[in-house]
Amino acid sequence: MQPFALNYARPAADLEVSIPYAYDSALQLNVLLDGRIAASDLALLRELGTTTSTAGSKTHFDD
Amino acid sequence: MTVLILTCEQDVTADMVVVHLNASGVPVVRLDPADLTGGVALSGEYVHGAFRGHLWSAGRLVGIDSLRSIWVRRPGVPASRVPEPSDWLTEESSQALYGMLRGSGARWMNHPDAARRARHKPWQLRLAQRSGLPVPATLITTFPQAAREFAERFPDLVVKPVSGAHPQEPPRAVPTSRVAPDTDFAAVAFGPTLLQRRVAKRADIRLTVVGDRMLAARKETSPDAHPDDVDVRFAPADLPWRPAEVPTCAADGVRKYLAEAQLAYGAFDFAEDADGTWWFLECNQSGQFGFVEVETGQPIARTIAEWLAEPGPPEGACCGGRSGTTTS
Questions:
Q1: pLDDT tens string B174-227
Q2: How far is residue B127 from each of residues B134, B135, B268, measured CA to CA in Å?
């Protein structure tokens, strides 16, 4: 009784990565431990993949 | 005049835009509707034929009539982070927040009504056709026999979710997948199934459109790529995204698409075939862009910031209320 498309399902990738920044509500930005703005470190963003298009988002349809 | 950004705290992609808005001196209020009624508060009154409303978040107070634009990025479910969340409270909070914002004169990226409609992939396919964009032959059906006949006409098929959503119990992903020639289609009866002719692609295209600005990126398909590696999100990431020119015919179609869809932002996915034709796959009305900017250096975040910062409606009076910094 499984829908056809689910024959092609696979376990969702583990998107849990250790995020080295935290949201600063005063700045309205995520900040690294050393005080730098996380979004300014493009090498870090690339490494973490947190800006990447991913399938299987739990909360959002759009990738 | 303030830019309102509705998104979650961990949305570092939104940060990329906030940085540009800060650099231009444009006031920003960023909040997550999930934090109603904890870290976010609202009030609006309809008196003597006029409306005065405001939002409060993290010490910032902004009048709803002081908003120049509203960016709906990755907002949480309203009031979902309160100690005792409920469907009723979520609906109440959603109606209060979005209902008041809908009454503002601010520009939306994207308006909730347009966004909701634009998430329907079957609607996307039809609109793409009407806009003159090439769409691979597609069937959406619950009839197994229709699927079998379609597979006879188009022997090389892929299957993908109709909604783009993925099952969560347990969490699974349903990538666009190639359908084997001898596949049994009986299970098509158990759920709407989207089958599409596989485009033998030489590249994936991600076209990010902000207002009337188009920023295209192209990821070449590796000569060693297996034909079963259909979904670029799951394929081995060997070749990088690179900036690309937009063919005139594709640009014309995309403009028509966005105009009819009433979208200020869209992230289009195309498959480029050996002839260089861009085949429309989908348009994500809130698609990710950070990974493209990181790889290509294209100024997508700055372009979004510039769109959001364009002048809004004439500013009206801001009401008083909960204390905090007033931004306008």
A1: 999 999 999 999 999 999 999 999 999 999 999 999 999 999 999 999 888 887
A2: 11, 10, 13
**Could you say which of A45, A55, A56 has the minimum Cβ distance to residue B290?**
A45
Q: Which residues of A touch B284 (CB under 8 A)?
A: 61-63
pTM, rounded to two decimals: 0.91
Quickly tell me which residue has 């949305």 as its tokens.
B11
**Spatial distance between the Cα atoms of B63 and B46, rounded to a whole number of angstroms:** 14
Q: Does domain B137-197 have CATH number 3.30.300.70?
A: no
Reference B270, options B208, B213, B322; nearest CA is B208
Of the candidates B59, B163, B167, the beta carbon closest to that of A6 is on B167
A46: which chain B residues are within 8 Å (Cβ-Cβ)?
A: 291, 294-295
* Domain segments of chain B as ranges: 2-106+312-326, 111-136+199-298, 137-197
Mean pLDDT of B38-52: 96
ipTM: 0.86
Give domain B111-136+199-298's CATH number out of 3.30.470.20, 3.40.50.1000, 3.40.50.620, 3.40.718.10: 3.30.470.20
